[in-house]
Amino acid sequence: MQVLKRPIITEKASEKNEAGVYGFVVDKRANKIEIKKAVESKYGVTVEGVRTAILPGKPKSRYTKTNFISGHSASFKKAYVTLVEGDVIDLYENA
């Protein structure tokens, strides 16, 4: 199981990065301890705290020429990781 799927790179998340809080999309089955170990081993930083949230899928629908199509987007889990003061993660190094 790959715990960390991808970092959250949005304008709102970038503002939190300055305060030492980083967001990641994580596996739904991962708990806070596993997330902490994964971030510490991948980025070589010390994690102070982890907050998680499971976001449900939203209903989506669209009209086509012949039909009405409805469904929903997938649900996912995200984690906000707070680092010890002085530690920094460079999310753009591999981009």
TrEMBL record:
Task: State the function annotated in the UniProt record.
Answer: One of the early assembly proteins it binds 23S rRNA. One of the proteins that surrounds the polypeptide exit tunnel on the outside of the ribosome. Forms the main docking site for trigger factor binding to the ribosome.
Share what the entry says about its subunit structure, partners included. Part of the 50S ribosomal subunit. Contacts protein L29, and trigger factor when it is bound to the ribosome.
What the entry lists under InterPro entries is as follows: Nucleotide-bd_a/b_plait_sf, Ribosomal_uL23-like, Ribosomal_uL23/eL15/eS24_sf
Task: Quote the protein name from its UniProt record.
Answer: Large ribosomal subunit protein uL23
| Keyword field | Ribonucleoprotein, Ribosomal protein, RNA-binding, rRNA-binding
* Single GO MF descriptor: rRNA binding
UniProt lists the family membership as follows: Belongs to the universal ribosomal protein uL23 family.
What Gene Ontology cellular-component terms does the record carry? ribonucleoprotein complex; ribosome
Protein species of origin: Rapidithrix thailandica
Per the UniProt record, the lineage of the source organism begins with: Bacteria, Pseudomonadati, Bacteroidota, Cytophagia, Cytophagales
